[in-house]
Amino acid sequence: MEFKYDVRDLKFILKEWLPSQEVFACDRFKENFSVEDIDILLNEAYKVAREVVNPINAPGDKVGARFENGSVTPSPGFTEAYRFMQQNGWGSSSECIKIETGMPLILYKAASEMNSAACPALMSYVKLTSGAANLIIRFGTDRDRETFLPKMLSGDWQGTMCLTEPNFGSDVGDIITRAYPTADPRIYKIKGTKMFITGGDGGHCENTIHMVLARPEGGAAGSPGIGLYIVPKIWVNDDGSLGKPNDVTTAGIEHKTGLHAHATALLNFGDEEECRGILVGPPPDEKGQSNGLAMMFHMMNESRIGTGHNANNQAAAAYYFASQFATERIQGRPFGVKGAGRCAIIKHEDVRRMLLDMKAHVEGIRAMIFKGFYWLDIQSNSSDKALAKKYGEFAEVLTPLVKCYGSEASLGLISEAIQVLGGVGYTQEYPVEQYLRDSKILSIWEGTSFIHGNDLVGRKMRMKEGTSFTNWMATIKGFIDANAKAEGFEKEMAGLARGYQCLADVKATYDAWFADMAAKRSLIPLYAIKALFVCAQVQVAECLMEQALIAKSKLATLPADAFDATFYKGKIASARYYVNNVLPNAFLATEMIQNGDDSVLTCPEEALVVN
Ligand SMILES: Cc1cc2nc3c(=O)[nH]c(=O)nc-3n(C[C@H](O)[C@H](O)[C@H](O)COP(=O)(O)OP(=O)(O)OC[C@H]3O[C@@H](n4cnc5c(N)ncnc54)[C@H](O)[C@@H]3O)c2cc1C
């Protein structure tokens, strides 16, 4: 089976659906990018995904990164592929903010989506390096930027994010890694252990630049006391040359369910009291407060959207494999057709149901994610400050939806792709099961699903007196009001209007719970993920309906046998399927939230545990 990807849908998103020209017209991009670049770039990215990236995916899974004698040996081909991506414009030099070579997110992400799908383990290294470089660009000094960026962008060095510690995962605000001041106010001595660090020691670069959260001595308790430090694995001298090892040791790498090819390391900082970190941002204030976690949130938010996107890419790749298989596998006869011979399984109603279910989810979640990238592009680059602010707030609301719904949905979709293959889908002879193993982590890292449910109901629904959320809701309402009578879609638009009502009902229920904390406190976290699913499913349905209306008008201009007619019919089918078969889950979930059943709370804790 070949690695295939739906480049046509990516082109549709950028050329026919989103107002990409508004992004390309921003001062930062107008000299270098235009709508005409989209086809060329995406075709080339697809070629790279097929010819350079995908070939290392299965061997990487089988051989994996190995930890021997205190250092990591990368999986076969990873060193070369990482360099190739970073040196040829498929990595950080295109993804980073504010640098000359940086691309619009909508364009870069459409290209990188195919590479992520082709080998998720490889592209995680690239994305973390971009995230670390972006932190240095945003908050570092000129000297930091001169010291670290050239080699990070060239692929000689890589970047990581170091938050988690053995006893502090979700509770990142309580971390105990320490930063001790030195005579140089810029430099701190770092001491502590960080766990589960992706690329913490990948073995594929000559140096690793760790972005480390640590609490300066005397720092305030909890999140406000945490600082952010640049900690190179090998110290970088003032002239840019590599100095001595910086007392960062790799204690081991994890043996994981999936993503075998990327090394997840346990790192000790400062065992010999010699680990130096460069302070990012101002030193702690008189109350012992630093801004480290807030700065790190920039990297985390990028990674959260990236995680949801990565999940959807993997689901997409699994679906494309399943759809190829369904046209080739001969099994059974058409239901209820007398005398019919054996047929390809794609002829069976239930297999087609699974394929359309995957197609609708993948396209809908992709659309939601790209709406978010478009908002982020405008936020960061538009000269229209009011619009930039508004879209920035929408993107904040969307971030937990993308991370949590994207990663949770992908697991079901990839499992469904295995189902299409039947027994062989469960074997390692076929490429689909690897996606199930590789993608499970995506609902855990960058905050577990609950963290994002909580972020939605506790922060995003309530920030700025709730106006960011209600303004975001209004974008959906605006589309419904403008298209309520769209010919041929009356039923679907009515379904979407009911979805909008669900958003309003969930918001009202949560407002009431927050107003009655004494009685309802525990219902808030209990129903957070359900509330998030309602919001995500309504947003996805709205995006698909926007796309369906465009597809309908395009179809009207094409001869019935036009090659592209099938694509547009498929877009309409995705929207109808999702609105009629998936969105009703949001109706039911809204009822459940309003019902507020408390059996989870009243069930004795002991009854939940088997002794
Ligand atoms: C392969 C891999 C790569 C990783 N990469 C990185 C990396 O590069 N950098 C980094 O810093 N970290 C990384 N991590 C760590 C990852 O972010 C954490 O594992 C994750 O945040 C969850 O923390 P935890 O494992 O300690 O689980 P815990 O926080 O112990 O959570 C266990 C369960 O309890 C739930 N829970 C916890 N607290 C609450 C609460 N208050 N209310 C309700 N439920 C709660 C969680 O939702 C979860 O279901 C990685 C982890 C893995 C496995």
Structural class based on helices, strands and sheet pairing: alpha+beta
Distance between the termini: 47 Å
Q: State the low-pLDDT regions, or none.
A: none
> Proportion of β residues?
5-15%
Provide a short characterization of the protein structure.
This protein has 611 residues and is an alpha+beta fold. It contains 23 helices and twelve strands.
Describe the protein's architecture and organization:
The structure is a single chain. Helices cover 57% and strands 11% of the residues. The chain is built from 23 helices and twelve strands. It has helices at residues 7-17, 20-24, 27-30, 37-53, 57-63, 78-87, 92-95, 105-118, 120-139, 142-154, 292-328, 349-381, 385-421, 432-439, 449-460, 467-483, 490-515, 517-520, 523-526, 528-556, 565-582, 584-595, 599-602; strands at 66-68, 71-73, 157-162, 178-181, 187-198, 207-216, 227-232, 234-236, 242-245, 248-253, 264-269, 276-280. The strands form three sheets. Strands 4-5-12-7-6 form a five-stranded mixed beta barrel. Strands 1-2 form a two-stranded antiparallel sheet. A two-stranded antiparallel sheet has the order 8-9. By secondary structure, it is an alpha+beta fold. The structure holds flavin-adenine dinucleotide. Flavin-adenine dinucleotide (FAD) binds next to β3 and β5.
